[in-house]
Amino acid sequence: MYFDNAATSFPRPESVIRAVEGWLRAGCAAGRGGHAGAVDAALLVQRCRSSLAALLGVASPRQVVLTSGCTESLNTVLLGLLSAGDRVIASELDHNSVLRPLAWLERTRGIHLDLLGFDAGTGLLDALQLEQLLDAGPVRLVVLTHASNVTGRVQRVSELAALAASRGALVLVDAAQTAGHWPCSLDGLGADFLALPGHKGLCGPLGTGVLVFREGREDLVSPLKFGGTGTESELLAQPERMPEKFESGNLNMPGIAGLGAAADWVLERTPELLRANLVAKTDWLSAELGRISGLRLLTPGVPGEICGIVSFVVPGLDAHEAAMVLEQAFGIRCRAGLHCAPLVHRALGTESAGGAVRLSVGEFTTESELAQAVSAVGELAMVAR
Ligand SMILES: Cc1ncc(COP(=O)(O)O)c(C=O)c1O
């Protein structure tokens, strides 16, 4: 039983599997060149970009950059935008794919970083603190996670982003836990830059990701990598045109074939329906686990606002030990530890317990699996007592 969808989704839609296999069997180019295979590949990339643009509410598919994952998308903005003296606001909810590049930029470029806290009860970022930090002086960038990968709580990003924009700060949204199975549009979120993986809520292949630039914002960001784009090859300077500016080197064509199929799969079902399915499962799991005596839930009890994640601590039991028992005795695959988000655990005081156990559901998680997970955690908690 797979309960690690927040890391990467499993299983994947048949159409995604067929698209990857189809490309591996018949594909022979990365869309750069003049022969028929290259033209086919270019069309496939174009279709993928158009489907993603439709899904993310982006008028021009050229603003959709294909990356290797959410980490590359986030790093592209952070490393390409920020320079000495810039003030940046991120938060304790952020993943290491935000915190580590920012720590490196603090050390090597002299940026100034402030971290927003969150309310342990509601899981929400502190809007008042954001306002105070914004009022303390000019801020170049605010990084907002759409949903914590530890608590699962979806944030009120549009309100926070509007606050940032009103003070002239740019906004980078990390939609790693929401994109695909939760409505995410550039305008809806109020983002200048939107980073997301292709392999979680979208159910595409691992090794795929997306970075969306609001029109014109690409001019503010230098590329992370430079190289061949198949265009303007006579120039030694990196093309400024989108999306080539950020897409050097041969593209991940099997991944893009699968990602395009995944975006079409989501568009067909609609993110609203996927969200409703996800919320029904998450809320049920959270409510049932909440009834288990002695278990400490880190996921707030706010029905309709949690995206697929329920995390908990079994008092007296290290998180890794608990996950090992869940797998070995009950066949449940889940994720234990700090989930690459150490500051959430520091704030919640769960570091000494080895972090937490995270169960994360997806579109293919069944009712029977949910019931078995609840019963397994119940037995585990009873033994630990
Ligand atoms: C909140 C958050 N941001 C970023 C990432 C990094 O995503 P990727 O694995 O696609 O690089 C993750 C992955 O777990 C995440 O949960």
Describe, in plain words, how this protein is organized in 3D.
By secondary structure, this protein is of the alpha/beta class. The chain has two domains: 14-269, Type I PLP-dependent aspartate aminotransferase-like (Major domain) (Aspartate Aminotransferase, domain 2, 3-Layer(aba) Sandwich), CATH 3.40.640.10; 271-384, Aspartate Aminotransferase, domain 1 (Alpha-Beta Complex), CATH 3.90.1150. It has twelve helices and eleven strands. The strands form two sheets. The chain has a seven-stranded mixed beta sheet, sandwiched between helices. A four-stranded antiparallel beta sheet has the order 8-9-11-10, covered by helices on one side. α1 runs antiparallel to α8 (253-269) and α3 runs parallel beside α4 (96-109). It is globular and about 70 Å long.
Kindly state the percentage of residues in helix.
40-55%
CATH superfamily of the largest domain: Type I PLP-dependent aspartate aminotransferase-like (Major domain)
Detail the poorly predicted runs: none
Major beta-sheet overview? 7 strands, mixed
SSE topology string: HHEHEHEHEHEHEEHHEEHEHEH
- On the 0 to 100 scale, the average pLDDT is 96
Shape: globular
Domain Aminotransferase class V: 1-370
Pfam families: Aminotran_5 (PF00266)
Keywords: Pyridoxal phosphate
InterPro entries: Aminotrans_V_dom, PyrdxlP-dep_Trfase, PyrdxlP-dep_Trfase_major, PyrdxlP-dep_Trfase_small
Summarize the structure.
Residues 1-370 form the Aminotransferase class V domain. By secondary structure, this protein is an alpha/beta fold. The chain has helices at residues 14-26, 36-56, 70-81, 96-109, 127-135, 157-166, 186-189, 253-269, 271-290, 319-330, 342-348, 367-384; strands at 64-67, 87-91, 112-116, 141-145, 170-174, 193-197, 209-213, 296-297, 309-313, 335-337, 356-360.
